[in-house]
Amino acid sequence: MDTGNPPEAVADRHEAVLVVDDSVVQREHAGALFRSLGVAQIHEAQHGLQALQLLAELPVPPCLMVIDLEMPEMDGIELIQQLSRRGIRIPFLVASSREGALVRAVESMATTLGMPLLGGVAKPLTAELLASALQRCHAVETGEPLLPATGLPMPIAPERLEAALAQGLVLPYYQPKVDIRTGLVRGVEVLARWTDPVLGVVPPDRFIATAEKHGLILRLTQSIADQAMGQLASWMSHGLAMSMALNLSPLVLQTPGLVEGISALLARHGLAPGQLVLEITEGSVVSYDAQTMGVLGRLRMRGMGLSIDDYGTGFSSMQQLARIPFTELKIDRSFVHKAHQQAHLRVILQSALEMAGRLGLVSVAEGVETLADWRLLQQFGCTLGQGYLIARPMAGEALPRWLKSHEARLPSLRMPTAESETS
Ligand code: C2E
Ligand code: CA
Ligand code: CA
C-alpha cells in the first residue's frame, strides 16, 4: 500500500505521533511542540474517522496519539471506543478545553475499556506534558507496565517484597476514623507500610499489586492482620476501645478456610468479631462469584463488619451491591475532598450519604483534608470521617501520643450546635 510514508521514514516507532483534532490551529500547535521535542513524523487527522483510516494505512503505527474530544464526523469518545473494538492499543492523551468533569468521564471510560490512556489534559498543550507522555510511551513499548497518568512509581520486584515480608519489614500503620459530629475516635484503618532500610517507607501503591500478582497477598494480609490485631489487643488492655478496619484484596476472599482463619486470629488476640471491619473495594464487587458472596455472608454472620471501599469509583450496579450484606459505605476521597468547591461532587456526595442513611449503613468519608470538607460532611449527616485533617496514617506506637493532642482539638471539630445552625 502506498501511503507516501516509506517505512524507513518511521523506522523508529518513537519518531511518529498522530494528532487528532478538528482545529488547524490546535494541530499546528501540537505539531510544533512535538517537533521541538525531536519527533520526526507528525501525522494529523481532523476527526475520528480520518484517524482510523490513517491508522489502517500507516505501515508503522505512531507511538502516541493526542485525541481531541469534540470533532465532527466521529468525536473523541467514539474514536476511543472504535480503537478498543479494533484492538488498537496505541498510548494516547485526551486533550480538551471543556470542563474537567467531561475529561474525567472519558478517562474512566477509557480505563474501563482497558485502553492505554496516558491521561486527560486541558488545552493548551505544553511541551512538558507531551515530553512526559512520550517518555511513558517508551515504557509501554518495552513491555513495562503503563505508568498511570499520575506518574506513580513503578511497582517493586516480587523477590524484594518476599524478602521484606520474611524480614518483617511490612508493618501496619493506622489512620483514625472519627465521629463526624464530635471528632471522637471510633476506630482505625490499617494500612500496610514497607519500611525498608534502603528504600525508606514504601507506600502500598508500590507493592500491593505486586503481592497480588505474585501470590504474596495472602501472606502479606495474614502478617498485617496478625500484627494489627496484636496492637489493638494491647491498646484495649490500656483502656482504648475501638474498631479496626482491614483492607482485603478480592484474591484473599478466595482463600479456602478464610472465614475460620480470621475468626481464629480474632480469638487468639481476644478480640470480638464486631471490632473488625473488612474493607472491600467497590471495583472488585463486580467480579464476585457465588463462592465469594458466600464467604462475605459468612463473615457477616460471624459478626464482622463489611465495608464498600472507594465507593463511587467501581461501576458496580445497585443490584450487585444489594446482594452483599454490607454494613458500611466508604465514599472515595475523590468525591470528598473539594466537594465544598465543586457542585457536582457535592451532589454525588450528598446522595451517597443519603442512600447510606436510608439503607442503615455507617457512612465513612475518606480524604477529609480541610475543615471546609469536614463542615460539609457534618451538614450532610455523614457518620465517620478519615483524612489528613484528622491524622495521617501512623505507626502503632505513635497513636497514644496523637490521641492526647487530638483531645485538645475536639472543641474545634465538634458540630456547631442546633442554635447556631438555625441562627
Ligand atoms: P485505601 O483503602 O483507599 O486507603 C486510603 C488511602 O488514602 C491510604 O493510602 C491513605 O494513606 C490515603 N489517605 C488517607 N487520608 C487521606 C487524605 O486526607 N488525603 C489523601 N490524598 N489521601 C489520604 P495508602 O496508605 O497509600 O494506601 C493505598 C491503598 O493501598 C489503600 O487505599 C488500599 O487499597 C491499599 N492497601 C493498603 N494496605 C493494604 C493491605 O494491607 N491490604 C490490601 N489488600 N490493600 C492495602
Ligand atoms: Ca480502605
Ligand atoms: Ca478507600
At the first level of CATH, the class of the largest domain is Alpha Beta
Structural class: alpha/beta
N-to-C terminal Cα separation, in Å?
77 Å
Radius of gyration, taken over Cα atoms and rounded to an integer in Å: 25 Å
Helix content: 40-55%
Largest sheet: 8 strands, mixed, barrel
Q: What proportion strand?
A: 15-25%
CATH fold naming of the largest domain: TIM Barrel
CATH superfamily of the largest domain: EAL domain
**Strand neighbour order, sheet with most strands:** 6-7-9-10-11-12-13-14
Bound molecules: ligand C2E, calcium ion
**Number of helices, counting only DSSP H or I runs of 4 residues or more:** 17
CATH-derived architecture of the largest domain: Alpha-Beta Barrel
Shape call:
globular
- How many domains make up the 3D coordinates? 2
Domain EAL: 154-407
Domain Response regulatory: 16-138
Protein name: EAL domain-containing response regulator
Organism: Aquincola tertiaricarbonis
Structure in words:
By secondary structure, the chain is of the alpha/beta class. The chain has 2 domains: 7-136, 3-Layer(aba) Sandwich (Rossmann fold); 158-422, EAL domain (TIM Barrel). Helix content is 42%, strand content 19%. The strands form 2 sheets. The chain has an 8-stranded mixed beta barrel. The radius of gyration is 25 Å and the shape is globular. The relative contact order is 0.08. The protein binds ligand C2E and calcium ion (2 copies). Residues 175, 191-192, 203-205, 208, 221, 224, 247, 249, 279, 309-310, 333, 366-369, 386-388, 393 line the site of ligand C2E.
